[in-house]
Design a protein that fits this description.
Elements (H helix, E strand, L loop, with lengths): L1 E6 L5 E6 L7 H7 L18 E6 L9 H8 L8 E3 L13 E4 L5
Parallel strand pairs: 1-5
Antiparallel strand pairs: 1-2, 3-4, 3-5
Length: 106
């Protein structure tokens, strides 16, 4: 199991514990945890509605693919640590990471 956090608009952080041995994406875990992630393309890195900002733990995520970077470049307000939750796999490298939802529903 791995524990990471989601930071809410008011600055509070909510921990989420997820299995790190099932190949799940961050998007899937966020949706299963009832966060308002649209993910209209179903995790294909085509819509960017699962946009998250990595507040802490970016080094453990690995590099974004060219497809992911293209989608991030088209976002209205990307940050230097923007990622698409559908492209981030749950692994031990996410232990202690902090994310902020930035997709269309936020």
């Amino acid at each position: 199991m791995v524990t990471f956090h989601v930071e809410h608009e008011d600055g509070t952080r909510h921990p989420i514990e997820a299995p790190d041995d099932m190949g799940l994406s961050l998007m899937e875990v966020l949706k299963a945890s009832d966060y308002p992630v649209l993910a209209t393309c179903g995790g294909m890195a085509l819509c960017a509605t699962c946009h998250v900002e990595v507040l802490d733990g970016k080094d453990g995520l690995g590099d974004a693919s060219d497809l992911e970077l293209d989608q991030i470049d088209n976002l209205p307000n990307p940050t230097p640590t923007s990622r698409l939750a559908c492209q981030v796999r749950i692994s031990q490298e996410l232990e202690g990471a902090v994310f902020k939802l930035r997709g269309e529903s936020n």
